[in-house]
Design brief:
Length: about 550
């Protein structure tokens, strides 16, 4: 490393900071960028404000930097490290020194032709393997495993000088001796994982202690993590695609909407796995005609129709109304796809619609209370009830994407849409680092527009809201979505930090007065939340 810096006419690093995984290193980089960049200031500040695994990782990175540098505080570390030397991390313009120009000069010495430096490498196994490891599509930078600082994993030194480019340069050299700069970085590349160059410091991450690859060198494991690091960080992958841990350990649990977007080989694997899994007993289940019927909008008339269809017995609905809200929903979720079959359908629909009636009343109450508090809504209609065409729109949507989970279907049909984005000095104070994540759920008309604009093979998820950072006008992650088709009672809200089922997510929103971003926050919690959530209906 000292030789690399010397070849670039830079004094050797004053500090060498080693991290047991690229994720741990990325958290340290986030700390260094916090005072330099508005987005990272917001992201890191938001993590600091909430209890949980991410704050623990941030605090460990802070402590690790202090221990490795023997400096007193993070301000001293930032001053001692100086500015980054690689383009991806240079915030606010180019600093006095960049390694990028030095590498261009060294590579030009190898090739003797400027155009060769910018030639796109052909599609090779090395390029595919590297891209699937830590590139923009790499498993190491997936938000599934390293959520907030995920982009920093791929913005390491190799993003400016990849292994593929190293191989091209080595090939072009033949028997010649490489320039000292290239020789130094090639030596480093054999010894460490992703690393980041700063003027006064080199931050390096270790190789994994366990790594599983497929025949093409991509991270892959069918029954466990594809990579395990010394600090316990685990990455799950199938043929270079990041996968949820549960999907690898239990392929039969993957929702059909998500399975549709998985590699064909994984779909085949999941099908074989599902065929071996024991089937739950079904009470002579048959497809229910209720889902081809537009249910009455009137609450009492709808229950009468469903009770008549069920022969007068809606036992789960009656228990739900008696207060067994969570127990009844657990039973509906345990039914899986049988929730849409006879004799379960009428009872399930009754519970689902009653749930959303209560959600609807809560949203009306929240809008009224926010208005009284002087909250300035961004939308002219923070709550848009379903329209006369909603029933037909639902039928069209399900014809295009397949069945919706009952929870989302009933939300569209009872609640409609909600948008609590807005401004308030107490609930959303200016300059705060907390993303309050106001409740937003788009309506069925938005879902239809989204689906109709997609190609047939793209319609695997329905967007229900922007993510918490985009709600604050800060560049963030993927929007909150629900995978389709899904014939079950409820489905997970994807890309939302809690990984909750939709009904549980709505419960969290109501518990926090419509602002679930305050969950886990242990300081500067607005007093207005107590007024907003007081007396809301349980569901």
């Amino acid at each position: 490393m000292a030789a690399l810096y010397a070849a670039a006419s830079v004094p050797p690093p004053r500090h060498y900071c080693w991290f047991d995984s690229p994720c741990a290193g990325a958290w340290a980089i986030a700390l260094l960028l916090e005072p330099r960049d508005r987005n990272w200031n917001t992201l890191v500040g938001s993590v600091r404000s909430r209890r949980g695994d991410e704050r623990d990782r941030l605090e460990r990175a802070h402590a690790h930097l202090l221990a490795q540098t023997s400096l007193a505080d993070i301000a001293g570390i930032i001053a001692s490290f100086g500015h980054p030397l690689a383009p991806p991390l240079m915030m606010g313009g180019l600093p006095p020194k960049s390694l990028h120009s030095d590498f261009l000069g060294a590579r030009l010495e190898v090739h003797g032709d400027v155009s060769a430096l910018f030639a796109q490498p052909m599609d090779t196994p090395l390029q595919r393997a590297e891209d699937r490891l830590w590139g923009n599509a790499g498993v190491l930078r997936s938000g599934l495993f390293c959520h907030t600082p995920q982009t920093l994993v791929s913005q390491n030194f190799y993003s400016g000088y990849s292994f593929t480019q190293m191989a091209m340069d080595d090939n072009a050299l033949g028997t010649r001796t490489p320039p000292p700069l290239l020789q130094a970085v090639w030596t480093i590349a054999r010894s460490v994982g992703p690393w980041w160059a700063w003027m006064g410091a080199a931050l390096l991450s270790e190789h994994p202690v366990e790594l599983h690859l497929d025949a093409e060198g991509r991270p892959h494991s069918a029954d466990g993590p594809a990579a395990v690091y010394r600090d316990g960080w685990k990455v799950f992958a199938w043929e270079g695609y990041a996968m949820r841990e549960q999907w690898i350990l239990d392929p039969a649990s993957v929702p059909k909407g998500d399975l549709k977007n998985c590699p064909a080989s994984f779909r085949k694997h999941a099908a074989a796995f599902a065929s071996k899994a024991p089937k739950p007993p079904s009470a002579r289940a048959t497809k229910s005609e209720l889902f081809a019927t537009e249910l009455p909008r009137d609450r009492a008339a709808r229950i009468d129709l469903l009770r008549t269809h069920a022969g007068g017995q809606l036992s789960r609905f009656d228990r739900y109304n008696a207060g067994e809200h969570r127990a009844v929903w657990r039973e509906l979720n345990d039914l899986g796809e049988d929730v849409r079959q006879e004799p379960n359908a009428a009872d399930a629909l009754a519970v689902t619609y009653e749930t959303m009636e209560r959600v609807n009343e809560n949203i009306r109450t929240l809008v009224e209370r926010l208005t009284t508090l002087g909250y300035r809504f961004s939308s002219r209609a923070p709550h848009q009830p379903p329209g006369k065409k909603t029933g037909k729109q639902l039928q069209t949507l399900e014809r295009l994407v397949g069945p919706l989970p009952l929870s989302l279907r009933a939300f569209y049909d009872v609640v409609g849409a909600v948008d609590l984005l807005g401004r308030h000095p107490g609930l959303i104070p200016r300059g705060t680092s907390i993303a309050s994540d106001p409740l937003v759920v788009y309506g069925v008309d938005d879902a239809l527009q989204e689906v109709e604009s997609m190609d047939e093979d793209e319609a695997g998820e329905i967007t229900i809201a922007p993510d918490d950072l985009h709600k604050e006008n800060v560049s963030g992650g993927d929007p909150y979505t629900i995978a389709v088709p899904d014939r079950r009672a409820d489905a997970i809200v994807l890309n939302e930090r809690h990984d909750l089922l939709f009904v549980d997510y709505l419960r969290l929103c109501c518990r926090l007065g419509g602002f679930p971003g305050y969950d886990g926050v242990d300081r500067d919690v607005p007093a207005e939340l107590d007024r907003l959530r007081a007396g809301l209906l349980e569901f």
